[in-house]
Every structure is written in structure tokens, then in C-alpha cells.
Amino acid sequence: MGAYVAKRLLAAIPVLFGLSIIVFVIMALIPGDPALAILGSFATPENVAKLNQDLGLDKPMVQQYFIWLGNMLQGDFGRSYTLNRPVIDEVLERFSATLILAGPALVLCSIFGLLAGVISAVKQYSWADKGLTFTVLIGISMPSFWLGLLLIFSFAVKWRLFPPSGMYAIYGGGDLPDLIHHLTLPAITLAVVATGVIARLTRTSMLEVLRQDYIRTARAKGIKERRVIYVHAFKAAMVSVIPVIGIQAGFVLGGAVYIETVFQWPGIGSMLVKAISTRDLLLVQGGVLVVAAAYVLFNLLVDVIQSILDPRLR
Amino acid sequence: MSETTIETPTKKKKSGGRPSTLRLLLNNTLATAGLVVLAFVFVVALAAPLLPLVNPDVTEPANRLQPLFADGHLLGTDALGRDILSRLIWGTRVSLAVGVSATLIAAFIGSLIGLVAGYAGGRTDNLLMRGIDMIMAFPYILLALAIVAALGPGLLNALYAIAVVNIPFFARNIRGITVGLSRREFVDAARLSGKSNASILFGEILPNVLPVIIITMSTTIGWMILETAGLSFLGLGAQPPQADLGSMLGDGRKILFTAPHVSIIPGVMIFILVMSINLLGDGVRDVLDPRLKSGALARPVMRTAVMRDQVPDIAPQEDATLDMQGLKTEFHVGSDVYKAVGGVDLKVRQGECLGLVGESGSGKSVTAMSIMGLVPTPPGRIVGGAALLEGEDLFSKSDEEIRLLRGLAVSHVFQDPLSTLHPLFTIGDQLVEAIRAHQVISHKDAMARAEELLKTVRIPNPAERLKVYPHELSGGMRQRVCIAMALANDVKLIIADEPTTALDVTVQAQVLSLLNKLRQERNVGILFITHDFGVVSTMCDRIAVMYGGKIVETGTTEEILSSPAHPYTEKLIACVPVLGEPDRRLDAIEGRPPVVNALPDGCAFAERCPYAKDDCRKGDLALTDLGEGRTVRCLYPVSGDKAKQGECDV
Ligand code: SF4
């Protein structure tokens, strides 16, 4: 087990390197003078020249990359010119807000996705199955930002059950109930698509597993059908569902970009959108790198959970 | 599923080619609905310049924020007084163009990478796929954002970004198929005939991966339309005055509270578009990928359906543990009916081993699995006959009664012990479960009992073995575990379905002698299903030979082995002279067993029988009694002198 975790950790290192290279290459795509792009259009020529030197932009590409990487590894992501504060501070602050949103969304979509998938599979071809399958299809076809608007319009504007935006109430907020109150609508919106994907996959893999020889064996032993389905089949189906939950975490993190914009959630997604439109490229770069690295680490965790479930992987 | 020879109906229809593919698609109501809606949207979008629409960009401040159904503005106007209907149609046009182009770009580059990686293999493959993995390591939309950030906001840049992040889906799927294809004979043949790599790749392999490319396109195009709309919604895609559905939605968002229709309408359009694509895509996938066809994924219920026209009235016999009479089991696939078992009588006495012998496709496994209702339903169903277990008809019992008998009175040992044991539970857990399904004892006592069981089947270090998982044991050990599981309770009958076929010869002999010894010690009846006469001779007291879903000969093992009466039995014996010699197996008989949805008139074996005469092909043949418990279903049974003395057509 320990050896397996160590192996996965080691395997994550080249992936993290790869990420950094891709981000570096993308930033190198920026047309024109990068230092000018980074500092914005009001930069003085002296500042541009200084930044060019700081970033090592007068040196060859490979060398530039390692200087850049060295800075990153020391936590130096540069300074945001629009906010005039270190990129890393802003990114971490925003990212924690995103996690507060994405975490519950991921839990929601896992629970409801598994539930819907299992019910569909167990009651295959019933009305419940058809209804769920169709609902799921609606869920994955819906633009999440539009769903967010619909929810705001009905639950926040019409019925005034939930606040339309933000993370805390401006006056007298800040405690946990207030947070949950603000969190409900965006978390549900964020979870919808992923719920659909997980439900679909759970249904398919439950059906797949229920045809396996070991399910026949379980039935031949005379154990209760409920146990056959919810213990034997479900556990085996989870082997193919869990990696997909890992992938969905990526979609939830990405989807946060829309949802945070719609609900004005002060997370990294809305930060990125703003940074892109103000051309604050160091902020974009830092945000993308941190989220991507977190995603890699999360998938590492998923792999470990997977190996606990499936002894054949250890 | 069963070993019965079943030609799947999908195969037959698929060979018909393209028109039938479309027909299959149209059979699916939802897919058809998707196709119709999508076609309508496409036509309207394409015809936009011809339609009598107001210029979508003409502002009319006096008429701003008109509601739905306003005069001259069916869907109202937006914040600048522009006609929403006109903007919607023109915006749909842009969204569709962007989504389709992004899909084509991603499909082209991704498929190319996949083809080259899969075909070249080795270092090229490794390098390309590592690169793809890197792209996949990003959360999907985040990478697109980074690309847009670098290139700058704009519809074209959004298009590129979305295409890039979708490349991996194509590359991975296409590579997987290509790897398999490039090892196939037709590729080797093309290579030997001196074709260049490029012409093999695009001439031979590409046509075969096309369905996968189409399937992947059908899954990704919906996302791509959604994501490009999303980027526009964020203000990173279409820039004014150009508008797509996403940017219309984004504009309308600011006035959501006062004029919700301005943002809701383009959202509805995106939803309709993506939903119809998904419905159609699901249909396309079902047609192109038969494995996913809903019928093929039907979930077997806990017990075979029993649908007998009448319940036969059978007098129980004193000495029989199992007395099966007139069993008929069928598979209903679509409108086809496969009569896998067409009226089978079997009797197993206490402590007796009955060998049920036949080729694959003869219906022997279906017969055996019918007893405790383990034939998968759908598509299987028992349509006639009765199976008496100690005088009581199993087919009349309730599901719960059957469950309580499974593993308690009748247990099973199956063919491949790797697939029949649950891979995620330890041996101990699985044994304990079998014990506690029928006995009320504590987990600890059950563990002790499980350890004993492992000792009974002579597994060394039983205490440690309880903690291991099936994949950590050898094939022989696994089958011993299965036998131990079959003995977990005080069973009267063991149904062993080819229990040694998956094992190698020495292990086979060990497992057989173990089963035999346990049978004698515990006086358990065994129904032993096999295709191997060598195995039969060491195990069984009596033999029943099956062909085409019917018993063709019965008798004691010695008699049948020394003087087979049915020409089929004769051939079977001739083909397997040595225990476990793998090259001379039953399936070495010339010809194939009949397909059970088209059984011939008269003797089912006539096609392959060396003694066949004209009258063999007429009417139903009865099982004739030869005396002393021997029966045969043949008009011209082989007698000792005329026997050809076993020629095996290898
Ligand atoms: S009935 Fe005729 S065809 Fe059939 S096995 Fe006997 S001899 Fe052969």
C-alpha cells in the first residue's frame, strides 16, 4: 500500500512538469512583447526593460523556462499589476473560496449520481429508469450558466429563498449558516452536469457488472438479492465509477468558472475571467497552474482510493 | 451468457449496410426526435439570409426591451431594441458554425494523432500519448481559458481553444482501436504486398476506425457547442457586434431581473440544440456500437422466468435426488426464439454422478442452469417441464424458496474460477458469506468453519488463504475454493458446469479426484457437465449425451464407452481417447451443431451423420429404450459389429 502511494506520487512529478511546460508554452504564444503584455498598456519603457531582464526574456527559451520554473517553485508567481499584490496571495485566497464551492458540489454530484444510476440499473426499463435517464439527459444538455440564471431568477428574485449572489451577506453575515445559504444555489448548479455523467456511467457499469459470472455465483450461493445488488454488484461497479468521479472533479473545477461569474462567487474562476479581460497575464498563469496542480493531486488521491477498493491494483 | 449457438440479430442486420443503419436509427424514437429537431434548427440557421428577418444588428432605442409577442417582434427586443428572434437565428448560425468547426478540427488532429500513435507504436506512440495525457491533466475548461488568455478574447480564438482541449478524446479513442487493428491479418497482408505506411494507415485502417471517430464526434460536439457558448457568455468568445448564443445570454444576464426573456431565450436555444445532439448521438452510438445496445445490456434478474403453459403432473420417484422431466428452455431475442433445450429428462440418484455430455451449443449448460433458475432472464425463460428436487417441483416454487435452496440443497461449481469468484472480496469473506446465507452463526465461527472447508479441499495454510483475494491464487487453488464454497452447507446435489475445463491437465486430475472423494464421503449427487469423455470416464456413473437441445443417448458409463449406440456418441468417444489431451477435443468433429432457432426436421444430427438415410430427416424421433436403462434417439443405432471403430475427423 505504502509502496503504491509512493509510486503514484513519483508518477505525478512528470505530470506536474508537463503542466508547467504547457503553461509556459501557452504564455510564450502571447503575441508581441510579453513584458508589455504583463505590465499592461500603461507601463513605462523602463519598467518593461527591467521586467524583461527579471524574467530572463533576453535568454534562450529553455533557459527561460528553468528560470521561470525556479521562481514558481519558490512560490514567486510575480505581481499582479491590476491588483498590485503578489499573485500567489490572491490565487490562494480565491482558490480556497472555489474549494468551498466545488467541494460540496462534488459531494452532491457523487451522491445523487450514484443514487440515480443504481436505481436506473436496478429498475431497468421501468418508468423510474426511463424518467431518470431522460432527466439525466436534460441535465447534461443544459448550459450550466443558463441553469444558474434560471435558479437565480426563480429562487432568488421571485421567491426570495436564497441570495442571488456572493459568498456572505454584506451586513451581519460571515457565519456558517450564512455561507450555506449563499452556497446552496451555486453548488447545485455546479453539480448538475456532473451528476448526469456519473449517473449514466453508474447505470451502465451496474448493468455490465450484473451480467458477470461472479454475480451468478453470488446468486447460486443463495444470498439475498438485495445483498447481491448493493454489495456485490455495487462494489464492483464502483471500480469503474470512481475514476470518473475523479474526472468529474476536473469538470466541476472548470465549471466553477461559469458558476462563479453567474453568482459572483469570489473564487478563482471569476478571478481568471476578470484577469483575462484586463490582460493580467501573470494572474492567469498563476491561477491556471495552481488549479491544475491541485487537480493532479486530487487525482492522485482518487488513485489511492481506487487501490484500496481494488486489491488487483496494489 | 449461455453456450448455446445464438446468432445475434444485430449481426444479421448490420451486414445489410448503410440503409439499415439509418433504419435502425429511425427505430429509436428519441433519436429520431433529436434528428428532426436538429435538422430543423440547421435548415433555419442556414436559411437565415433568405428569411424575412429584421437586421439583427439594427438598434432601436425607442423599442427597447419589448416583451414576447410584441408587435413586429415575436420574441421581443433586447436592451438596445434589437429584434431577439432575428438575433437568435443569426446567433444559432454562428454557434453551430463554431461548434461544428471546432469538432472537425479536434476530430481531424485528434484522429491523426491517434492513428499515427497506434500504428507506429513504440517511442512515437509513447511520446504522443504522454503529450495527450498532459493536456488531459488540466481541468477541461481551464486549459481553454489559458489559451484564450494568451491569444486574446475572440470567437476564433475560443474556437481554437475548445478544439485543442477536445483533441485528447479523439486521440485516445482512435489510438485504442488502431493498436488493435494494426495487429490484424489484413494489415500484415497489405504490408507484405508492399503498400506504404501512409496508404495502409489511410486506406486500410482509417475506414475501420471511422465509426469510432463518428461516435466520438457525436459525444463531443454537444460539449463543444456548450463550451464555446460558455466562453462567449464570459465575454471571451464572440465580440460585439458579432453575436452567438452565448454572448446573447451574457448580454441578457445584466438585465435578468427586469427582462428575463432576453437571457432565457438564447439559453433555451442552446439547450434544445445540445439536447437534440445528445439524443441523436445516443442513437448513433447504439447503432454503431452493438455492445452498448440496450438489449445487450439487459440486466439478468435473480431467477430465470418460468412461463409454462401447463404444469406437468409428475409422480415423484423415491430414489431420485433430482428428477427432471421434459425441460424446455428458450431464449427470446427480439422476435427470434432459440429453443436451447427442447424437452430433456434427467435423473440423478443420491450419491450418483451423472455426466451430461455434448459440444458447446448442445444445450447442456442451459439444461443444468435451468434447474436452480440461473439462466439469465432476459432473454432466457423456462417454458415447459418440471425439475423435482426430492419430489418437489423447483419450477413451482417462489423466488424466495429458490433462494433458500440455492447453496443449501443444491450448489454449483462453475467453469472459470477466476471470473466466478468476486475479485474484490477475500476468499474468507466469500466463504463466510456462503455459510451465513443459510446458517445462523457468528462471523468468528463462520471463519473457523471456512478454514475447515479449505482444509477439506486440501488447500495448504488455510488460515492465511482466507485473507487473500482470488487473483492471488492459482487456477487450481481457486477451483478448490469454489468446491469448498459448494460444500459450505449440507448439499444434496452439486451442479458442476465444466469445472476443470479452464485448468491444466495435472491440476484437472487432482480436482476431479477431490470431487469424487467428497462425493463418496458425503453421499452427494453430482450433475457433471462436460464436453470431455476422458473426464467422464473417471467421474461418472451414468452418462446422458445431448445434441441440439435434446438427449440423444443415455446409459451407464461402461456401456456407453464400450459400445456407443448413437452415431454422435460414437464420434465423440473416437475424438477423445486420452484424458485431457487438449488437441483432440469434442469440437474436433466435422461440421457445426445446429443453430437452435432453426432446428431441422427429423434428426438434428443428420447433417453430420455418416449413417444418415432419407427417413432420418422426417418427423420427430423418439427416444427408444434399448433395455437396462439404455436409451437412444436414432433410427439406425450403431451396433457392435457395424461400428466404424471410431474415426475422428480432425
Ligand atoms: S437418426 Fe439417422 S441421422 Fe440421426 S443419428 Fe441416427 S442414423 Fe444418424
Automatic annotation (TrEMBL), chain A:
What residue stretches are annotated with the ABC transmembrane type-1 domain? 95-306
List the InterPro entries hit by this protein, alphabetically.
BPD_transp_1_N, MetI-like, MetI-like_sf
Q: Where in the cell is it found?
A: Cell membrane
Q: Which residues cross the membrane?
A: 9-30, 99-122, 134-159, 179-201, 236-259, 281-305
Bilayer disposition of the protein:
Multi-pass membrane protein
Q: Which is one Gene Ontology cellular component term of this protein? A: plasma membrane
Alphabetical list of SUPFAM superfamilies matching this protein: MetI-like (SSF161098)
Q: Which UniProt keywords apply?
A: Cell membrane, Membrane, Transmembrane, Transmembrane helix, Transport
**GO biological process terms on file:** transmembrane transport
Family, similarity comment: Belongs to the binding-protein-dependent transport system permease family.
What protein name is recorded for this chain?
A: Peptide/nickel transport system permease protein
TrEMBL record, chain B:
Q: Give the SUPFAM superfamilies listed for this entry.
A: MetI-like (SSF161098), P-loop containing nucleoside triphosphate hydrolases (SSF52540)
The residue ranges of the ABC transmembrane type-1 domain are: 92-281
Q: Which compartments is it annotated to reside in?
A: Cell inner membrane; Cell membrane
Origin, by domain of life? Bacteria
> Its membrane topology, per UniProt?
Peripheral membrane protein; Multi-pass membrane protein
Q: Give the GO molecular function terms.
A: ATP binding; ATP hydrolysis activity
Give the residue spans that cross the bilayer.
21-48, 96-120, 132-152, 205-226, 255-281
For this record, an example GO cellular component is: plasma membrane
**ABC transporter domain residues:** 322-573
Q: Which UniProt keywords apply?
A: ATP-binding, Cell inner membrane, Cell membrane, Membrane, Nucleotide-binding, Translocase, Transmembrane, Transmembrane helix, Transport
Return one Gene Ontology term, BP aspect. peptide transport
The text of the family note is: Belongs to the binding-protein-dependent transport system permease family.
**What name does UniProt use for this protein?**
Peptide/nickel transport system permease protein
| UniProt source species | Cohaesibacter marisflavi
Classification from the root reads: Bacteria, Pseudomonadati, Pseudomonadota, Alphaproteobacteria, Hyphomicrobiales
